[in-house]
Design a protein that fits this description.
There is one protein chain. The chain contains 10 helices and 17 strands. The radius of gyration is 24 Å and the shape is globular. It has 2 domains: 213 residues, Beta-lactamase (3-Layer(aba) Sandwich), CATH 3.40.710.10; 193 residues, no CATH class. The protein is of the alpha+beta class. The strands form 4 sheets. Strands 2-1-17-16-15-14 form a 6-stranded antiparallel sheet, with helices on both faces. The protein has a 5-stranded mixed sheet with strand order 12-5-4-3-13. A hairpin with a 5-residue loop joins β16 and β17.
């Protein structure tokens, strides 16, 4: 082939590539103008190591729950095949134990954790709990203070129990809760459109505000954590006394491993976008690295050892994405998905993720004859994100990241425009 022929062939290939991605760019420009938002989009072909479209892919965006992709990657690299549920040591007739941050104990959204229960319940020693390895705040940096009443923002702890919230029920003339850690107050003179159950900021006092139709109802309310409360809950649950002790981790502690398998936690985190599990997994990563439960330790370690080659350094501050301090670029998110794709078998990975039309936060969206979107959403007010893997009608697997920030239109409209374009990509390639 002559030099001129080679040149024309390369020009033709480049023109074809530009033509195939031009409709994507045009659509994104129109959407950005219509919704007056800030859009970043990257579509990448991992088989050929080729970027098909990069629309503002190097700009920083608030990722919301796309932050959980980073937590998943950290967990895959650090935690391993089993979850360490607690650490313990035997001192004469006493069993002293510390939490690792593992979130599965008596949590309704995961499989049953019976190994920890049986270990503590059946021990012939006196039980003592220490929280001295928990070296962080119960809330994350940049979290909204007024979301404390919502289970999307429960407190982080070294030894979570019941997911760190209670299921509160309003009966016709009384209240009940599991676990029942609250005191109750009713304000019958305050009639709201709908009944509400509000917890005090700094205590476990609940105030009930009746609605116009005052029927039985159920809420999930985070409880205000203290070591004393945890000891009481463990004592009530195990039907034997658990006392508190202040003691640093000695060198000879042993691990007790959970009966909850890691993938069952990852599925809840990625499909249901469970913030509690995400934050506790990041604490668990830090415990494995340093013996200390502090999210910043895990983040620093993962950035230095595993994320040093991202296109843009991530601003990463929590495990769940509740914080608006997080900032990622679409092209870095795509690169992270590529890393995960290379280390986790596809059959396993796709079952962990939300699946368009079938599972998780995109169960009711992105429907087709066969699922074609496998990934993770992220939503905060005025922000909606979706990234992951797009399997085209012809069987090609692409990696994409679509970030929308600062729109004021309803999220449903933004999601609708995303669905239209992603389905076009599914059909075209």
């Amino acid at each position: 082939m002559t030099l001129n022929c080679c040149c024309w062939l390369l020009i033709g290939l480049a023109a074809g590539a530009c033509s195939s991605s031009r409709f994507i760019t045009t659509s994104l420009q129109q959407t950005e103008k219509e919704f007056q938002d800030h859009i970043g989009f990257v579509l990448y072909d991992p088989a050929h190591k080729k970027t098909i479209c990069d629309f503002q892919g190097g700009s920083n965006f608030t990722p919301a729950s796309n932050t959980k992709i980073f937590t998943l990657y950290a967990s895959l690299n650090i935690i391993g095949d089993s979850i360490p549920a607690l650490r313990y040591t035997q001192r004469n007739d006493s069993l002293i134990f510390w939490g690792t941050g593992a979130p599965g104990f008596l949590y309704e959204n995961t499989s049953k954790e019976d190994r920890v229960y049986n270990f503590l319940k059946n021990s012939s020693s006196k039980l003592f709990f220490s929280s001295d390895n928990f070296q962080t705040d119960h809330f994350g940096s940049g979290w909204m203070w007024d979301d404390y009443n919502d289970t999307d923002q429960v407190e982080k702890t070294s030894f979570p129990i019941y997911g760190n919230y209670s299921i509160v029920k309003k009966l016709y003339k009384s209240f009940s809760a599991v676990p029942d850690v609250f005191t109750y107050e009713g304000k019958e003179s305050t009639i709201k459109e709908r009944s509400q159950m509000l917890r005090d900021v700094d205590s476990n006092k609940l105030t009930y505000l009746p609605g116009k139709t005052d029927r039985p109802k159920e809420w999930r309310i985070p409880f205000r954590h203290s070591d004393q409360l945890l000891a009481k809950l463990l004592t009530d649950t195990l039907k034997r006394e658990v006392s508190l002790i202040s003691m640093k981790l000695p060198l000879n502690t042993k691990y007790l491993y959970s009966s909850v398998v890691p993938d069952s936690l990852y599925k809840v985190m990625m499909q249901a976008s469970d913030n509690f599990i995400a934050e506790q997994l990041l604490l668990l990563c830090s415990e494995k690295i340093s013996d200390t439960l502090r999210s910043e330790i895990a983040i620093k370690y993962v950035k230095k050892n595993f994320l040093f080659d991202l296109p843009d350094a991530p601003v990463w501050v929590d495990g769940s994405g509740l914080s608006r301090y997080n900032l990622f670029t679409p092209r870095s998110v795509v690169r992270l998905w590529e890393k995960i794709y290379s280390m986790v078998p596809r059959e396993r990975l796709f079952q962990i993720l939300a699946i368009g039309g079938e599972k998780g936060t995109i169960k009711n969206y992105y429907k087709a004859e066969k699922p074609f979107i496998f990934g993770k959403t992220g939503t905060l007010s005025n922000n909606h994100i979706l990234s992951g893997y797009l399997v085209t009608k012809r069987g090609q697997t692409f990696i994409f990241s679509w970030m929308n920030n600062n729109f004021t239109t309803p999220t449903g409209e933004v999601r609708g425009s995303m669905e239209v374009l992603l389905k076009k990509i599914y059909e075209k390639y």
